[in-house]
Design a protein that fits this description.
The chain is built from 12 helices and 20 strands. Helix 1 packs across helix 6 and helix 1 packs across helix 7. It is globular. 41% of the residues are buried. The N terminus is likely disordered.
Length: 436
């Protein structure tokens, strides 16, 4: 029996993610750079569905001591007939099955098997072929932003994060709300800010960041800087896209800029397993979203395959898994929509109003899970439980909004309470002084 065509359930018209056009910009300058040596460029045949192309774009966090992780992953669907673009952000903590490695976070696939394993893993998750991959070294973003003369970003809230042990020498972020011009260093701080929103907040900031980049690169002032930009981009971008398709996508820029771009995040649920944060994909909703992106009719066989995959995924979830705040996730995802504000007396802030990100930077096994349990028992919501980039934090610190400071007094573990986070959010960064 033929199933009814599914409905694509999320379209963030006001977010206007322009990530693909940023990618097209990269493809354009690469095409310009490669045009002098076309003969050496791969001309492999493309596989598309009615002129639709699916492209996996990954931002790679490369490091000197290992191959790195795919810190950012987005899936682009481009329809060259209609000039429609759909973009799906894939949280880096998405729990997936990888060939030869069992279940793990999707950003680990690159470390295990490079872009080949990443591509294979995403294809199996979505049940659709991927035409091309694009790898971008995240560290090069700073140089690219400087090369275009910086960007203007409207910072949506106060962003403060200070950890001298984080990120190979320390991480300090201190941004205030409002429109401001940022050089590469400041722009990357904006993208990397961590708060109670977890992966959802990071995805929203990545989209906001790419929109700001697009607006800048399409201005006349950037044209004289093209040679410098080409130099920066061509040295840090890898792709298997042939020259002919680079030109095809580049030609879509004017139409895409004035058109509608539909964006979404891979549907799922936040959870943590053994002190580690994960995003558990909703297989059925995901396959429906992909079918709509590609204008596919869902056949009985496709539906049966989806049901089987979803059942196998649920069966393999380990014991001890704890789901986190589905209601908070839905609220954050739709925070972009227009709302009406009614003046009323502010109610006292309660623990259930606060969403907390827990980061275990202590080196103490299980400390993150233990702290999350303590906070949930007190009524707080947990967005994620993550392992810090360091295990050398000496003191446990809680950063929250000034209106919520009092809620964290009397914790059954030593901690320093600081202000600086967004409204109704907090970050608990665990140090060596933590006691379970």
């Amino acid at each position: 029996m033929e199933q009814k065509k599914v409905k694509y359930k999320r379209s963030y018209h006001r977010i206007i993610i322009i990530g693909l056009v940023f990618f097209v910009f990269i493809a354009t300058v690469l095409a310009y750079n490669f045009s002098k040596r076309i003969a050496a460029t791969s001309a492999k045949p493309t596989v598309s569905l009615d002129d639709k192309y699916t492209i996996m774009v990954m931002g790679i966090d490369s490091r000197s001591d290992d191959v790195g992780r795919s810190d950012t992953m987005m899936l682009f669907n481009v329809d060259t007939k209609t000039d429609d673009v759909s973009v799906m952000s894939i949280p880096r903590d998405t729990r997936v099955q990888m060939k030869g490695h069992g279940y793990d976070k999707i950003n680990h696939a690159y470390a295990y098997g490079g872009h080949e394993l990443s591509k294979d893993t995403v294809q199996n998750l979505l049940d659709v072929p991927i035409n091309y991959y694009v790898l971008i070294d995240i560290k090069s973003f700073e140089n690219i932003i400087d090369a275009i003369g910086g960007i203007d970003i409207d910072v949506e809230k106060r962003m403060y994060y200070d950890d001298p042990w984080d990120d190979n020498g320390g991480l300090h972020i201190d941004l205030y709300p409002g429109m401001q011009h940022m050089d590469g260093k400041k722009a990357i701080e904006y993208v990397r800010f961590r708060d109670g929103e977890g992966d959802i907040g990071r995805v929203a900031r990545q989209q906001h960041f790419l929109k700001a980049v697009l607006e800048k690169v399409l201005t006349p002032s950037v044209l004289p800087k093209l040679p410098e930009i080409i130099k920066e981009v061509s040295a840090t971008v890898k792709t298997d896209m042939p020259f002919t398709d680079m030109l095809k996508f580049a030609g879509m820029i004017p139409k895409i800029k004035d058109g509608t771009i539909t964006s979404s995040m891979l549907p799922g649920q936040a959870a943590y397993i053994d002190d580690i944060s994960y995003w558990l994909p909703d297989i059925k909703a995901l396959r429906q979203d992909i079918a709509e992106m590609l204008s596919l009719n869902v056949t009985t066989q496709m539906q049966q395959d989806t049901d089987k995959t979803a059942a196998e995924y649920a069966k393999d979830l380990p014991k001890g898994l704890k789901l986190l705040n589905e209601d908070a996730t839905e609220t954050n995802q739709n925070s972009d929509s227009e709302t009406k504000t009614v003046e009323k007396k502010a109610a006292p802030v309660k623990p259930q109003d606060i969403t907390v990100m827990v980061i275990n930077s202590s080196g103490i096994n299980g400390a993150g899970a233990a702290a999350a349990d303590i906070l949930m028992n007190k009524g707080f919501k947990i967005s994620s439980v993550e392992t810090g980039r360091t295990s050398a934090n000496e003191k446990t610190r809680i950063m929250t909004n000034e209106n919520a400071v009092g809620l964290f007094y009397g914790m059954p573990f030593p901690c320093v309470i600081m202000t600086g986070s967004g409204e109704k959010q907090a970050v608990l960064n665990i140090g060596k002084d933590f006691k379970k």
